[in-house]
Amino acid sequence: MDEDVARPSCPEPPAPPSPPPPAAAAAAATVPYTLRELVVYFLRLGAVGFGGPIALAGYMQRDLVETRRWVAKEDYLEGLALAQLAPGPLATQLAIYLGWVRARTLGATLVGFAFVLPSFLMVLAISALYLQYGGLAWIQGMMYGVGAAVIAIIVRSAAKLTKLTLGKDRLLWSAFGVSALVTAWTESERVGVFLLSGLVVLFWRSRPRVRPLPVALGIAPWPVWLLTGLHGAVSRDTLWTVLWYFTEAGAFVFGSGLAIVPFLHGGVVDEYRWLTDTQFLDAVAVAMITPGPVVITVAFIGYLIGGVAGACAASLGVFLPCYLFVVLPAPYFRRFAKNPHLKAFVDGVTAAATGAIAGAAFVLGRRAITDLGSALLCLAVVGILFKTKKVPEPLLILAAGLVGLLLRPT
């Protein structure tokens, strides 16, 4: 008998499964979620998220990328890069982009509205009390503690974002360092440094031939109380001026509250004389002690100028450009985001913007940490943040504010 026929046949071992394509692997790394869940998350973040744009961006990275795994790391970094490239409040633009990733224009609109609404309502309430009682003297004592805690939150969030965006790339660390020094020295963010960093990284990595990339307010018969601010009811022309001025602020100021505050001071106090220096500082303080985007200070300013209508006009003016700067280029940005040349440019911009955030933390810290007490309080909050993740940031902010009231009673 033929041995080949007599020998029992053995089944061949199954071939090892082929690795999933990168897109499938990225999709498998995330957990499905609904648009409603995302909107509820941003409603909550807008209600309890303290610390300014860098802290808010850090919360999104921690909650949505690391903890819940709703958002892929690549999508988060793309949104952060687009928010840094476009003018307007960084945290709000990042939130809008993440909403766009989930449900395009509808998602961007609902998430942006949910993120801004809680702090807007809080600021309206504080503004009404401010007009009623003539000031917020207690804020100064509270800000002594709140400022120290906020700096600690910014430092922790900046450290996490640095680890996320720079890795061990020496070129990116160089861009980070230059941008941090420029921001700390000039006390403002320089978009030219961002763009130059992007071009340097692009040239260094690939030396390609650079090609250009495609990139109503009705006032009359409103109730008088809706238009009433510090100086009584305002005119239609004043409301149009408020809307246009704050639209300029939203369209031409890059980054965070650090950049927009000097711009607003020049117009609100020096040019139009809507507020005094003291009233403007109160507006900034209100933004710091309320959650959500720091740029919500414009609602307080608008309220003092023209009541509820002024607050709505100022907020619409600031947030509408940043919404459009995200929703309109998002499809093209996402399409070309994997291009190695664009990625090199965005990496450079991201490194510089992260450096600007670190420089901003230095500038803000120099203003908030004024003596030994505030320095010790800041160090205590930093220690708590790095040692444990169980203490919510809003609780730390509240505790630090109470300590500030005890150390500096009004």
Keywords, separated by commas or semicolons:
mainly alpha; single chain; 410 residues; globular; two-stranded parallel sheet; 74% helix; two-stranded antiparallel ribbon
Structure notes:
The model is unreliable at 1-14, 20-27 and 208-220 (pLDDT under 50). With 410 residues, this protein is mainly α. Strand 2 and strand 3 form a beta hairpin. It has helices at 3-6, 22-28, 35-48, 52-67, 73-85, 90-133, 138-166, 170-186, 191-206, 236-252, 257-271, 277-289, 297-327, 330-336, 340-368, 372-387, 393-407, and strands spanning 88-89, 228-229, 232-233, 254-255. Strands 1-4 form a two-stranded parallel sheet. The chain has a two-stranded antiparallel ribbon with strand order 2-3. The radius of gyration is 24 Å and the shape is globular.
Task: Please outline the major beta sheet.
Answer: 2 strands, parallel
Measure the end-to-end span: 107 Å
One letter per element, helices H and strands E, the order comes to HHHHHEHHHHEEHEHHHHHHH
Helix content: over 70%
Measured by DSSP, the beta-strand proportion falls in: under 5%
Shape, please?
A: globular
